[in-house]
Amino acid sequence: MIMKHFDKLQGEVTVPGDKSISHRSIMLGSLAKGTTEVTGFLQGADCLSSISCFQKMGIEINNNPETNTVLIHGKGLRGLSAPSDILDVGNSGTTTRLMSGILAAQPFTSTVDGDSSIRKRPMGRIMTPLSMMGAKFESLATDKCAPFKIIGGNLQGIHYDSPVASAQVKSAILLAGLYADGQTSVTEPALSRNHTELMFESFGVDIKSVGTTATVTPAKELIAQKIEVPGDISSAAYFIVAGLITPNSEITIKNVGINPTRDGILTVCKNMGADITLSNVKDDIGEPVADITVRTSSLHGCTIEGDIIPKLIDEIPVIAIMAAFANGTTIIKDAQELKVKESNRIDVMVNNLSAMGVDIEGTEDGMVIRGGKALHSATIDSKLDHRIAMSFAIAGGLADGDTEILGAECVNISYPSFYSDLDMLTR
Ligand code: S3P
């Protein structure tokens, strides 16, 4: 796809539902007794993978893509049946890891597989703790990647000191902990997103969080709920950055989830000198939401490191674009997790931003960007990573000349209407 150049962005946009919360709504809805109604569900390919996996385990799930409403007819904590086929997770790491926590406790064996990107992503990080709880894994590939078999069974509660600040690892363990014979707790090196903990609470699960430790008590039964999914701050991030770096711009992004474990990008924008304001802040559905307004700003570089990294991990590609447009140097550290996302996001950002003339250097755990120079057009290889494609759609719209994005359609993973929403703001 060739990116159209834009010289101003104006207007309001409502981004689709939060990906993390949408996945969790399918999983907990499937394990609850009764009908869970989800509104604002993200119709991205990743979340559709979660739906189809649980349908394969006998759960009736009615998705209405016109209204983004999903009805999940849960059969209770022990209501899943053995899938007759491979559970195909597509491109979705969240489906793979969170569902594995549930599969670990089932009285059946299942096989999990996905696309070529999923087959490269590390699964040892969930296999280790879930094996400690009593599940058995058979890797059908090398290096503890998909495809793999999970032989579920009776689990014991554990305490796990996780080596990574990963909500997918934490959530897999907590989901397995619903079925264990005693309490299960996970301590992380830094706090990752807490959507599982919040949703456990609304489904009536006994869950406690103290600092970076979350502890779950095995559940008897979960009760069906109504879930309103807020807009995804990771999708809003493209418009936040676009509005700040495009001349003569003002954009309001409506109804965005601003959970404090996800709002690192807002802090970084402020630290870089952004004109960004929140309005209509509401906190009555378990997950806080707000409208976010951004205006063209003169930005300066900053250092991003430490505990804030898990709070903005998925936004780093577009933060790197923002840094390229900021004056001075931006240093991103402690973000080695970027190497094991849908693509190696350190390498892919360095290669593509360098191709546009940006002074950028990759490091072991991040990147250094010396910003402030005009970008020129280039051919961008998205590596079929949705967040890379969307980040360069913004950079390409501001570069001189035509920027072509290869594999641009991969935005379907998390934001199917991304290009038309962006286009609407250019008019
Ligand atoms: C997610 C957690 C993060 C994030 C991913 C979604 C989740 O992954 O990058 O897009 O929904 O729990 P990690 O837990 O691997 O950091």
- Small molecules held by this entry: shikimate-3-phosphate
The oligomeric state is: single chain
In the CATH hierarchy, the architecture of the largest domain is Alpha-beta prism
| Helical residues, percent | 25-40%
Label the structural class. Answer: alpha/beta
Q: Beta-strand percentage?
A: 25-35%
Computed CA radius of gyration, to the nearest angstrom: 21 Å
CATH superfamily of the largest domain: Enolpyruvate transferase domain
The tally of domains stands at 2
What is the helix tally? 12
> Biggest β-sheet, characterized?
5 strands, mixed
Kindly state the number of beta strands: 24
Mean pLDDT: 97
CATH class of the largest domain: Alpha Beta
Shape: globular
**CATH topology title of the largest domain:** UDP-n-acetylglucosamine1-carboxyvinyl-transferase, Chain
Low-confidence stretches: none
Which terms summarize this structure?
24 strands, UDP-n-acetylglucosamine1-carboxyvinyl-transferase, Chain, single chain, 2 domains, binds shikimate-3-phosphate, 427 residues, alpha/beta
Outline the structure in words.
It is built from 12 helices and 24 strands. With 427 residues, it is an alpha/beta fold. The protein folds into 2 domains: 2-16 and 230-425, Enolpyruvate transferase domain (UDP-n-acetylglucosamine1-carboxyvinyl-transferase, Chain, Alpha-beta prism); 19-228, Alpha-beta prism (UDP-n-acetylglucosamine1-carboxyvinyl-transferase, Chain), CATH 3.65.10. Strands 3, 4, 5, 14 and 15 form a 5-stranded mixed sheet that branches. Strands 2-16-18-17 form a 4-stranded mixed sheet. The chain has a 4-stranded mixed sheet with strand order 6-7-9-8. Helix 4 (124-133) packs parallel to helix 5, helix 7 (233-245) runs parallel beside helix 9 and helix 9 (316-324) runs parallel beside helix 10. The radius of gyration is 21 Å and the shape is globular. The chain starts with a strand and ends with a helix. The mean pLDDT is 97. Bound molecules: shikimate-3-phosphate. Shikimate-3-phosphate (S3P) is lined by residues 20, 94, 166-168, 171, 192-193, 313-314, 337. Shikimate-3-phosphate is lined by residues 20, 94, 166-168, 171, 192-193, 313-314, 337.
